[in-house]
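As a warm-up, study this chain.
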Amino acid sequence: MKLLPGPAHDGQSFLSIRIPRPPRSSPIRIARALVANLQNPRRQMNRVIRFLVMRIAPAFFGLLLAAFLPAQKPERPAPKGVVYGTVFDPNGQPAKHLLMAAEPFGVGLGSMLPTTETDDNGNYRFENLSEWGRWTVFAVDEKQGYSYYTEGYSLSGPAPQATLSPQHPEAKFDVHLPPKAGFLYIHLTNQNTGELIKAIEGKVASQEDPSHPILTMGYLSGRALLVPPDKDLLIHVTSPGFLEWNQSLGIGYPIHIASGASLQLDISLQPADP
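Now compare it with the structure written out below.
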């Protein structure tokens, strides 16, 4: 309480008394608030609703979402497998400077196969392989007589394999190469004009099973088609806009090429629309 001089009235002055408000936490203020809330139940209800919305509702909805959303699995580190070893040629000697590819079993990579080249001692090493599981390694060096289509495991049965896992992320895998492929060269021309035909479509089947091709390829003239060596084969030759080679009609034209040897065929095709 403070005593303050008041204004003068009729030449007289008097003292005014100012009583300060009680603090917010004083018993008087709390009592007044309780009385006001009791006298105004609507205000009391609004405060209860506000408390529920601001404090309880977020927690409730959080529990609800946790109950219905699938539990998140902890992220596993990306595979970084390693396959390494030595490549030996058919004579048992280290295969130097040979292009090699690695392929996982039963997994589509959605991109080109990883490749690497052997060193002077025939050693190779693949790092950061993107899948756990079974891998095979084979040569894909066409200049040296190896390709995916002739050296791949699908032509000679199940392939040797290396297995990678988080517990065993590295595997040693030596590769013993089969004999080199045979080199088939086809010089293709237009029967009517003699002009060179650049695009060649070739199909290769075994003479033992001519109805099931083992190779079906489209390639450019001048490039060697690698075929399984030392086998009795049948080929079919054609090109877009041309009829099939008349000598390969029916079951196909027979060929037999030794490992590492070459065969060249000069073929003329009749245009489909003369």
